[in-house]
Specification:
rRNA_ssu_MeTfrase_I, methyltransferase, five-stranded parallel beta sheet, Cobalt-precorrin-4 Transmethylase, domain 1, S-adenosyl-L-methionine, single chain, 11 helices
């Protein structure tokens, strides 16, 4: 095998999505790193893959690095898999990849199943440009803080959600992003794959009448409202109000200039000399 480490995608619900290359790689490497050995052994047994498994998850990935590097120094080949889908996509692996790059260790990706791209296509929204955010913070106020940073973004937004967070997620989207077209996909690639489409309020009404279980992908249409840019005179009104609240002048000028396509130096001279 030419590479030392293989980042391998595995099915997210349909075993027929396992690629021939993934099976071949997992059979040939010396060690397989996985989130949960009890979970992964079922997948490997199905494809008659008998290999050494080592747990590698978000709670031990830092402490595992030295051991993994020692295996590579012993000329062992490794594969990294997650419980389902593609490693590093809202799953562990980023720390490992950074270490491999820093140590000039050759690695590659064996692509395959993931949840975000099918959900994007199923939504019917613009798929040419999009932003994948993954899971939002658990606290509702933190959810809304994050969404506030995205509300002016005009590209499609993609989020992951657990069943326990789903209602709160849709409510937060409704509170911050408003009446936008939204799609929720569940059980992607499985027998009962379903996508619900509507406004956040319509989706909340649907969800209140059903049992919520499994992982969800939420896709939200980008902001279609044309943002009104402030003139220098309007920017001055905002500047004067925010300065009274204790905002730092330089930080505020930088923000106003960036948000309104104004020349920062010209705006500074205008605001500070009038």
């Amino acid at each position: 095998m030419e590479d030392k480490v293989y980042i391998v995608s595995t099915p997210i619900g349909n075993l027929e999505d396992m690629t021939f290359r993934a099976i071949k790689v997992l059979k040939e490497v010396d060690v397989i790193l996985c989130e949960d050995t009890r979970h992964s052994i079922k997948l490997l047994n199905h494809f008659e893959i008998k290999n050494k498994l080592i747990s590698y998850h978000k709670f031990n990935e830092k402490e595992r690095i030295d051991y993994i590097l020692s295996l590579i120094n012993e000329n062992k080949t490794l594969a990294l898999i997650s419980d389902a889908g593609t490693p590093l996509i809202s799953d562990p692996g980023n720390i490992l990849v950074k270490e491999l790059i820093e140590n000039d260790i050759k690695f590659t990706v064996v692509p395959g199943a993931n949840a975000l791209l099918p959900a994007l296509i199923l939504s019917g929204f613009n798929s040419e440009e999009f932003l994948f955010i993954g899971f939002l913070p658990k606290k509702n106020n933190k959810k809304e803080e994050k969404l506030n940073t995205l509300k002016d973004f005009d590209k499609t937004l993609i989020f992951y959600s657990s069943p326990y967070e789903l209602i709160d997620m849709i409510k937060a989207i409704d509170n911050v992003l408003g009446d936008r077209k939204t799609a929720i996909s569940k059980e992607i690639t499985k027998l009962h794959e379903t996508t619900y489409r509507g406004t956040p309020k319509e989706l909340i009404a649907m969800l209140n009448d059903m049992e919520i279980k499994g992982e969800f992908v939420i896709v939200v249409e980008g902001n279609k409202e044309e943002k009104k840019l402030l003139t220098k005179e309007e920017a001055k009104q905002i500047f004067d109000m925010e300065i009274q609240k204790g905002e730092h002048p330089k930080d505020l000028i930088k923000k106003l200039a960036k948000e309104n396509n104004l020349n920062k130096r010209e705006l500074y001279n205008y605001l500070m000399k009038k």
